[in-house]
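Regression test case RT-17, inverse folding.

Input:
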């Protein structure tokens, strides 16, 4: 029988394990030798299709996947049904607020609000709200947790309401760790079992997460990627996520890492290479003999950076390293054996000498990688760590000629923040242990960071504290200021807390331009702190090194200090690989991971919260945290059509979701702060933007609130201002949008390359919808933000090659005519756009609708995800 016929009529086979027969999809039996040509990610998608579809849909999807082998690309779409959803508190809050508002709408329409409940398990990690208020103190972790619980009490009560009202939603309280570390250490099974049709199945663990760094779990062979909260809402309620069969880029790894090189260094090189290749929206898979030399921890670091290199995934297939990691983190022997047995039987086990078919390939020699940093404003700008001073010296900055500095001996580019932070580099014990051993040597030589450096250590898991203490390294880290400040994203997500006063005063006086050194994954201007536009990404050990130097321009070819007549260099502090191995052997105990997680889950402050126990949420008009959003309504309709619009903003390249919807601290002197103070808040305790994502009134005022964002309509205007073109007045963006709306005038946004890069936050799209934006015209879009725009009913249009927001030369008085009628819209269709010049000239452009699937067309026609879900539920 022909392969396609086999696939069409196949039901399932069986696999015997521990005396029981489990139903499985037998990929080797179905495809034979053809299976080895398929990338592992497509094997997993094929298994998902075979298990979850039937009839013509299965035939069409399977045929499309096999046809992909002919040229490594496809325009066909398939349905993917993940097994679970992972969220964090600041992406789950707006999604759960949407659900609460949709329940209200259902009740008001005469329906039963309780019919709206998740069809899949949803785990929520409360990890994005912890701020570094207290540091370099043994009580820092407890003190910061107290601040967190006080500031976010109302929002946390709401999350508890959701876990009570929505069956299947599990909230992991503050202190249990960062979501991606929790996923690796606790939630991921790699292979799981489920009941289907009266039989017990063995299936791959698959997932989606409302955070762009969800692919971190790809490091242990779990297929998952990041989506916006809007897309997660559709999947949550039983709608499969539709995707175009992806291009798959193969990265062949050869050789082994040099002794001083670490997983961080490899991740930065991968980011640099793949950004240059432009893998936006593509799946990336690693293969070749070098893969086998990398631990699961190494792989997770590389996979985590997938959004930084623009890809949907950064996949490593299952092998012995995966099993070793599962064993080291306390999984049962049966669970580990099940993973091996299933993957070997189904063709999902990694073979180092296998080379599947890929859309395109690159090769990276691990042995050629040295110690790297990335910055000062983008993760893909990679340099040797000794070149940071040269990079900074090329920036246009001259300290003021003030007679004295706010801090004596403050360098031109002081290290203001030195943070061992983020899931990226605190989930792999090797990286933390290396930093601890470097701190130990620094302590022996009496080295400490200068007073102006704000130091912090925020591991991804409470188990890190246990293994650092067992190795005797916690005291060494604390001795140089790296006490644990808590278990959360902290500095990486912009919750870095206040800058040291001396740094703040010196910057205000123009004495310096401070720099952040962090082991995170992003260094966009203003992300770490609103007053810092320079930052470098590096390994935890190198963060310690720069903290000791205190000067971002320090040349590490020169000594850090003198000790008893001897010059001490960074190389003298750097631990040998065998020392790291020995410390790891002493530090790690598989029992720690479950024990420490269980203990952290018993958060007494969390358990003491009094949450409502009602089917619908009781909104409070006076709340500054939670407000029912206006877009959660059946009446919201399509924004498609033929219309003439004014540009609300014109922006350049690399506009991130941090620019569009910031997550960092709310500036006390901002219009957002004024609004909150008018409603009773304290100006000196406004928390961060991310904490207000349940309040649409705050978030629409926060849209594009980033002082590094240049709006070409009003380049010299204050932050979050624009020019209202009919009048020529420069005013706050929110007020301009209101004036356009009152005059029944349409608006669009015009942007450059990589619009919406960065975090997955759906508020970057929601804010634009509330501002009245009907379409975004950009040179190119980042994957998740493109999806979020469609989820809010906003049409993404890509400009023709060679045309950008700046080359269009749009002037005040010009308008933009867009012909995007619903009845003619198809995936990737051409849309005519006319620039109507004030002088009467008309310039025509042929744009492309960045709409990948028919399902996305439906969303645009219905006005977005929320109206679509409401209509389905009420039907």
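Golden output:
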């Amino acid at each position: 029988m022909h392969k396609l016929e086999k696939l069409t009529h196949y039901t399932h086979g069986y696999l015997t394990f521990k005396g029981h027969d489990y139903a499985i999809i037998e990929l080797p039996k179905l495809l034979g030798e053809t299976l080895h040509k398929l990338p592992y990610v497509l094997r997993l998608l094929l298994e998902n299709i075979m298990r979850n579809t039937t009839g013509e849909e299965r035939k069409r999807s399977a045929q499309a996947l096999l046809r992909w082998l002919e040229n490594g690309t496809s325009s066909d779409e398939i349905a993917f049904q993940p097994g679970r959803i992972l969220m964090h508190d600041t992406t789950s809050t707006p999604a759960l607020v949407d659900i609460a508002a949709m329940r209200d709408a259902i009740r008001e329409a005469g329906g039963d609000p309780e019919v709206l409940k998740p069809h899949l398990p949803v785990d929520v990690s409360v990890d994005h709200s912890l701020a570094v208020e207290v540091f370099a103190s043994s009580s820092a972790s407890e003190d910061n947790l107290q601040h967190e619980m006080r500031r976010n009490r109302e929002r946390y009560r709401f999350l508890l309401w959701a876990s009570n009202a929505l069956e299947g939603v599990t909230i992991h309280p503050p202190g249990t760790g960062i979501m991606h570390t929790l996923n690796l250490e606790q939630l991921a099974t790699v292979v799981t079992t489920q009941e289907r049709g009266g039989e017990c199945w063995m299936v791959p663990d698959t997932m989606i997460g409302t955070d762009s760094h969800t692919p971190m779990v790809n490091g242990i062979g779990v297929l998952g990627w990041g989506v916006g909260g809007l897309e997660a809402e559709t999947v949550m309620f039983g709608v499969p996520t539709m995707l175009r069969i992806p291009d798959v880029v193969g990265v062949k790894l050869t050789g082994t890492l040099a002794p001083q090189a670490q997983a961080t260094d490899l991740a930065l090189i991968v980011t640099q290479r793949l950004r240059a290749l432009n893998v936006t929206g593509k799946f990336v898979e690693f293969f070749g003999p070098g893969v086998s030399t990398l631990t699961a921890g190494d792989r997770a670091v590389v996979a985590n950076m997938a959004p930084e290199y623009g890809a949907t995934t950064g996949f490593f297939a299952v092998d012995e390293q995966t099993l070793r990691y599962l064993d080291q983190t306390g999984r049962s022997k049966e669970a580990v054996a099940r993973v091996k047995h299933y993957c070997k039987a189904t063709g999902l086990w990694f073979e180092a000498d296998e080379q599947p078919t890929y859309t395109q390939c690159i090769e990276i020699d691990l042995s050629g990688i040295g110690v790297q940093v990335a910055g000062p404003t983008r993760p893909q700008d990679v340099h040797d760590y000794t070149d940071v001073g040269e990079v900074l010296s090329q920036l246009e900055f001259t300290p003021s000629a003030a007679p004295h500095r706010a801090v004596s001996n403050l360098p031109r580019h002081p290290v203001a923040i030195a943070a061992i932070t983020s899931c990226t580099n605190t989930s792999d014990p090797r990286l933390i242990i290396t930093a601890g051993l470097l701190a130990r040597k620094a302590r022996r030589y009496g080295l400490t960071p200068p007073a102006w450096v704000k130091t912090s250590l925020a591991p991804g898991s409470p188990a890190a504290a246990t293994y650092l203490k067992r190795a005797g390294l916690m005291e060494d880290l604390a001795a140089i200021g790296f006490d644990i400040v808590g278990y959360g994203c902290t500095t990486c997500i912009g919750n870095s807390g206040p800058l040291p006063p001396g740094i703040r005063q010196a910057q205000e006086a123009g004495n310096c331009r401070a720099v952040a050194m962090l082991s995170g994954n992003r260094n966009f201007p203003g992300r770490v702190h609103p007053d810092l536009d320079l930052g470098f990404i590096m390994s935890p050990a190198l963060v310690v090194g720069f903290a000791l130097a205190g000067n971002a321009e320090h040349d590490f070819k020169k000594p850090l200090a003198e000790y008893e007549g001897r010059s001490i260099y960074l190389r003298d502090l750097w631990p040998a690989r065998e020392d790291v191995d020995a410390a790891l052997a002493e530090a790690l105990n598989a029992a720690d991971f479950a024990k420490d997680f269980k203990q952290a889950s018993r958060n007494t402050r969390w358990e003491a919260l009094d949450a409502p126990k009602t089917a619908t949420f009781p909104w409070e008009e006076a709340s500054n945290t939670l407000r029912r959003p206006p877009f959660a309504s059946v009446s919201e309709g399509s924004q498609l059509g033929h219309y003439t619009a004014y540009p609300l903003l014109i922006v350049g390249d690399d506009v991130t979701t941090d620019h569009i919807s910031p997550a960092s601290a709310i500036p006390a002197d901002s219009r957002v702060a004024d609004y909150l103070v008018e409603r009773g808040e304290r100006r000196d305790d406004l928390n961060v933007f991310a904490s207000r994502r349940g309040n649409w009134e705050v978030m629409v005022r926060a849209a594009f609130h980033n002082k590094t964002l240049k709006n070409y309509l009003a380049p010299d205007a204050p932050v979050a201002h624009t020019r209202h073109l009919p009048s020529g007045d420069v005013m706050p963006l929110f007020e301009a949008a209101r004036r356009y709306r009152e005059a029944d005038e349409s608006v669009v946004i015009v942007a450059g390359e990589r619009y919406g890069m960065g975090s997955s936050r759906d508020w970057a799209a929601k804010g634009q919808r509330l501002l009245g934006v009907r379409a975004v015209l950009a040179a190119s879009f980042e994957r998740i933000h493109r999806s979020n725009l469609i989820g809010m009913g906003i049409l993404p249009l890509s400009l023709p090659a060679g045309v950008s927001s700046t080359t269009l030369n749009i002037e005040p008085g010009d308008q933009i005519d867009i012909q995007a009628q619903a009845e003619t819209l198809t995936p990737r269709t051409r849309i005519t756009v006319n620039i109507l010049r004030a002088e009467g000239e008309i310039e025509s452009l042929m744009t492309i609708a960045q709409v990948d699937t028919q399902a996305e067309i439906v969303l645009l026609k219905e006005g977005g995800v929320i109206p679509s879900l409401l209509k389905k539920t009420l039907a």
